[in-house]
Amino acid sequence: MKLNCLIIDDEPIARKLLKEYIEETDFMEIAGIAENPLKAMSLINNLQIDLIFLDINMPKMNGIEFLRSMPDLPMVILTTAYDQYALDGFELAVVDYLVKPFSLERFIKACQRALELKILKGKKVLEHESGTDYFFIKCDGKIEKVIYDELVYVEAMSNYIILHTTASRHIAYLTIKGMLESLPASKFIQVHKSFIVNADRVNTIEGNILHLGSASIPMGNNYGGAVLDRILKNRFFKR
Predict the structure, then answer these.
(1) Which long-range contacts (CB under 8 A, 24 or more apart) does 78-82 make?
(2) What CATH number is associated with residue 26?
(3) Are 192 and 223 a contacting pair, CB within 8 Å?
(4) Which residue, 25, 71, 156, 182, shows the most beta carbons closer than 10 Å to its own?
């Protein structure tokens, strides 16, 4: 298995180094290179991209702004000379945060994590398609069984997530993006940077608020249209 990679960086030297590192890593391939996020958008829309190496300080649109404006990006590893954006990056569920200059060893470690996430996602899809209706997750030193139909929504909390089920809640050391990639896409939808919901559990839509039983979940500005299309598609009767 190989990861198709896109480099987004305004510095020629940084682009050259990333290109060399990717070529040195046997499970990585270069799919495209862009000088800024605006030029990268067409590549993302037209190419099969698994992983983006994204700089932060760039003209016109920086990397954090780009992440916030594009809710359905592939996996992202931030590459920057500044460490003060690390919290922003992990809140936006990036795979890793590489501070320039970084070694080939550190680069490969980050890429290995991305590869593992892709493999895990593939396994979860196969398991669900084969009829599995539950999964296991490590929470507070225990391994808990969670049934997909009973998982109402997932909430991000710093470096953790909270799984809210019909009967209880579980706290796990995972990112919201990693969890989304592990859940069946036919059933679960990210509606906000901090929330994933079970589409079958949505009872009422009121403006930008989704009501799931006693829970009220906000829809983010960058998610609303796609969320409503997914929830209402072929099920919305109107005059």
Answers:
(1) 78/54, 79/9, 79/14, 79/18, 79/53, 79/54, 79/55, 80/55, 80/56, 81/57, 82/56, 82/57
(2) 3.40.50.2300
(3) yes
(4) 156
Question: CA-to-CA distance for 147 and 149, rounded, in angstroms?
Answer: 6
Look up the CATH number of the domain holding residue 220. 2.40.50.1020
- Contact between 161 and 60 under an 8 Å Cβ cutoff? The reply is no
Per residue in 88-111, is it b (16+ CB within 10 Å) or e — as a string? bbbbbbbbbbbeeebeeeebbebb
Note the pLDDT tens digit of each residue in 28-55.
999 999 999 988 988 888 888 999 999 9
Residue 98 and residue 141 in one domain: no
For the chain, the domain total comes to 2
